[in-house]
């Protein structure tokens, strides 16, 4: 949408401005990321939406592409102090200001930032645009060409608060949120509840259920940190975007990152190079080198398949071996990936009927309650009185409502850790023999959240082989493999002054060898399965004798004695 079209639109309130922003982003077909901010001094939660994933972070450790600020509530000095203290400099950033006093902002922008600016005036009912160094001559939001755009909402309250005295509305209207959610293909449920018995206020909360948004009230108890004393209302919320539906054949591309594809390309190059070289030197008499052994194996496999009298394709054994090797490499990488995408592999929180605190504890999970709510929870759940105290974590800072989180976790398939303590007690299960945390190989900032820890619940491995993988995990096979592989692939980012060495490819080589071994095993199992089936039919008895004679001719004499 060009600037000229923007000028023709007439807007009269904040909700229309925000809907316009969402409309622009929708037309530009940019996957948006919402960062919800309440106050500059508050360690607010953030949520990013990036390629179907919900990433939670405790701090804003990135450079936003768009700043949206309601300048009717704050001064320009406050705004720029927040920008300077909380965000890294982004020369491609765009600013959308809602307000009237723009002179000081314009001067500050020209000094501090090289950026695009869009001014939204709520008084005049129109949009005024102004640029620095004529940057806004291009189309709007053209600077952000990547798959996700980071947007900061500043001082536009992402909640609804209806005070009982006079029914005064503060914050965004329900219609606005419904409009935005409709455009972004999200759902929300609005339920009026009483959230403060002392003040007698009521609020229209966004509850969970089958929704994409959940809300948690923050109550001012004595045990809370002082940093939240200046918040105007006792409510915060965050988005849980609905992941886009990905076809099954595309799922591997979504699960794997570029490091895994480097592994696949490396495997292809090695396999092709070995086969081409073995074909060239096949006539030379090699004894026990790698090429000779590979050639002998391929000859044996080809003789075995030719004896079935059913498959006469040229180099079919090589094709089958390549396919089985690739399949096993993919499975091994999925096992590696599933270590992080499905932490509850052996204890499925969503298929075992966990609907209450009793169910949650009976399944062996830890429970977090606040000290001020411990008596209330134990009265609602009498079985907690006899529950081991080491399984119940008390937290003074933030109240957490397990029923809301569990409802959202069940509908959105999110695994929920309650707080830092429960996370630290659980992640110890995922350590290698060197006490290296497997979870820390992910960016820790992606795991932090002020009210709990959310993990994406998803398992790319088919359910038919899930029991097998669970057994391998119980015996430590996957943990050993992941610890060796992750120590290399997690450090695959090479600086400009750094060169690749043997250590950088050691991890992919191990995975390649493991995939080849499993591929060979599967390959021979298929051959033996076909032979056993033929023997049961009393067919190919004579060709089977010929098979042994041909194999004896191919193998070295030392092995046939």
TrEMBL record:
Keywords annotated in UniProt: Cell membrane, Glycoprotein, Membrane, Receptor, Transmembrane, Transmembrane helix
Membrane topology: Multi-pass membrane protein
Gene Ontology CC, one term: plasma membrane
Name by which UniProt lists this protein: Uncharacterized protein
Subcellular location: Cell membrane
Main localisation: membrane
Transmembrane regions listed in the UniProt entry: 176-198, 260-278, 319-336, 511-528
């Amino acid at each position: 949408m060009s600037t000229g079209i923007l000028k023709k639109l007439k807007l009269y309130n904040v909700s229309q401005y925000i809907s316009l922003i969402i409309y622009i982003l929708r037309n530009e077909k940019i996957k948006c990321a919402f960062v919800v901010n309440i106050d500059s001094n508050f360690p607010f939660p953030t949520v990013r939406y990036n390629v179907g994933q919900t990433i939670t972070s405790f701090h804003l450790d990135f450079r936003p592409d768009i700043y949206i600020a309601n300048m009717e509530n704050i001064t320009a000095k406050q705004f720029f102090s927040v920008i300077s203290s909380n965000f890294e400099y982004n020369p491609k950033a765009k600013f959308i200001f809602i307000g009237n006093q723009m002179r000081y902002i314009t001067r500050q922008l020209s000094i501090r930032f090289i950026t695009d600016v869009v001014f939204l005036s709520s008084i005049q009912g129109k949009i005024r645009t102004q640029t620095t160094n004529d940057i806004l001559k291009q189309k709007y939001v053209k600077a952000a060409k990547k798959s996700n755009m980071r947007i900061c909402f500043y001082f536009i309250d992402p909640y609804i608060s209806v005070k009982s005295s006079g029914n005064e509305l503060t914050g965004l209207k329900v219609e606005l949120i419904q409009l935005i959610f409709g455009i972004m293909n999200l759902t929300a449920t609005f339920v009026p509840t009483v959230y403060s018995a002392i003040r007698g206020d009521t609020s229209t909360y966004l509850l969970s259920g089958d929704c994409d948004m959940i809300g948690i009230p923050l109550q001012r108890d004595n045990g809370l940190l002082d940093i939240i004393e200046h918040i105007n209302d006792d409510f915060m919320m965050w988005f849980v975007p609905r992941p886009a539906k990905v076809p099954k054949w595309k799922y591997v591309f979504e699960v794997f990152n570029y490091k895994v594809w480097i592994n696949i390309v490396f495997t292809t190059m090695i396999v092709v190079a070995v086969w081409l070289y073995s074909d060239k030197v096949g006539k030379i008499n090699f004894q026990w080198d790698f090429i000779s052994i590979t050639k002998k194996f391929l000859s044996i496999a080809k003789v075995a398949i030719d004896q079935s009298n059913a498959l006469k394709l040229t180099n079919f054994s090589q094709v089958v071996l390549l396919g089985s090797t690739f399949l096993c490499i993919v499975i091994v990488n999925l096992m590696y990936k599933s270590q992080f995408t499905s932490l509850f592999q052996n204890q499925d929180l969503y298929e075992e009927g966990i609907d209450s605190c009793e169910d949650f504890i009976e399944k062996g999970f830890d429970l977090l309650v606040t000290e001020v709510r411990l008596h209330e929870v134990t009265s609602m759940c009498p079985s907690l009185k006899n529950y081991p105290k080491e399984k119940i974590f008390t937290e003074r800072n933030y109240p957490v409502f397990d029923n809301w989180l569990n409802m959202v976790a069940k509908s959105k398939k999110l695994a929920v850790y309650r707080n830092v303590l429960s996370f630290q007690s659980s992640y110890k299960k995922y350590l290698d023999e060197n006490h290296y945390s497997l979870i820390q190989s992910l960016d820790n900032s992606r795991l932090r959240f002020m009210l709990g820890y959310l993990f994406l619940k998803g398992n790319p491995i088919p359910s038919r082989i899930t029991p097998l993988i669970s057994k391998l995990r119980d015996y430590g096979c996957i943990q050993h493999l992941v610890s060796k592989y992750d120590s290399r692939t997690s450090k695959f980012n090479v600086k400009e002054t750094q060169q690749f060495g043997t250590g950088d490819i050691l991890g992919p080589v191990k995975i390649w060898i493991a995939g080849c071994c499993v591929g060979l095993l599967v390959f021979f199992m298929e051959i033996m399965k076909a032979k056993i089936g033929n023997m049961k039919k009393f067919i190919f008895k004579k060709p089977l004798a010929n098979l042994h004679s041909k194999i004896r001719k191919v193998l070295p004499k030392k092995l046939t004695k």
